[in-house]
Amino acid sequence: THFGFKYIPESAKETLVGQVFANVASNYDLMNDAMSIGVHRLWKDHFIRSLAPGPGTKLIDVAGGTGDIALGFLNYCKEIHGDQSAHVTVLDINPNMLEVGKKRFAKTVYDKASQVSFKVGNAEQLDYPSNSFDAYTIAFGIRNCTHIDKVLKDAYRVLKPGGRFMCLEFGKVENPILSPLYNLYSFQVIPMLGQIIAADRDSYQYLVESIRQFPPQPEFARMVRDAGFTLVGKGWEDLTFGVAAIHSGFKL
Ligand code: SAM
User: Fold this and answer.
1) Among the atoms of ligand 1, which is closest to the Cα of residue 94?
2) Which of 64, 134, 142, 213 suits a disulfide with 90, CB 3.0-4.6 Å?
3) Considering only CA atoms, which residue is closest to atom 16 of ligand 1?
4) How far apart, in whole angstroms, are the C-alpha atoms of residue 143 and residue 173?
């Protein structure tokens, strides 16, 4: 594939994202570890501990891909509460990504107990009634969606009153010393790793470009608030100097 873009046009984004994740699905978990030197695992653990789901939580994990958040969530519920009544719906637009996830859950205690279900769907228009879920998570997914405002609006709709929205996404590094290093790493090293490990420079070039185009933390926090959510404090927490950030809000 030769995407050959500098700027991702809105009209082509959904097709492009479809190609990218169909291409990367089989190498996705390995590449995450390589690109982030394993740090994405720490971010995801922290994300789930911050959500701190109670017994019986009904979660929808949107853009859930290969199921990292879903697995972390169910492990948390089992280990912290001994709870086997929690449930997670893993939703993703890409069937290839979900297939990798399904294989991972097959034969786990969670699969046997029907605590997880997989569904192909678009984050911009969820096929669920209003007030359906206790919690909504989206990890490294929202920047791949064409209309962020639609995603947030539908997140608000499907949550029950009192429900919590939590988003883990790449952010902007504002530290003047670290920022150029981070740029060097993302623009030079990541596409190279994509080339070496997955023989697919273009898909990883897209990933870097999508990070660059995503709004900075304060602007995204405003979008979350504009969708109707009540923010706690300023509305986000920076992780690793802002390389990633957790945005969260309640439907009150
Ligand atoms: N949440 C997983 C994780 O943290 O490892 C996967 C993140 S992966 C970088 C982004 C996922 O977003 C891909 O699986 C992709 O198919 C999905 N995606 C992109 N656009 C989407 C949309 N409009 N609706 C639902 N999922 C989407």
Assistant:
1) 16
2) 64
3) 94
4) 16
Structural domain count of the chain? 1
Residue 47 lies in a domain: yes
The response to whether residue 23 sits with its C-beta less than 6 Å from ligand 1 reads: no
d(CA 128, CA 179): 41
Q: What are the CA-CA distances from residue 150 to residues 7, 13, 125, 130, 236 (Å)?
A: 21, 15, 7, 15, 20
- Our CA angle for 16, 17, 20, nearest 5°, is 85
CA-CA-CA-CA torsion sign (184, 190, 193, 199):
negative
- 39, 241 contact by CB (below 8 A): no
In a domain, 64, yes or no: yes
Residue 248 near ligand 1, beta carbon < 6 Å: no
Interval 142-201: pLDDT, tens: 999 999 999 999 999 999 999 999 999 999 999 999 999 999 999 899 999 999 988 889
Residue 95 lies in a domain: yes
User: Ligand 1 centre and the CA of 142: distance in Å?
Assistant: 7
Place of tokens 């997670």: 88
CA distance 124 to 158: 12
Ligand 1 center from residue 19 Cα (angstroms):
12
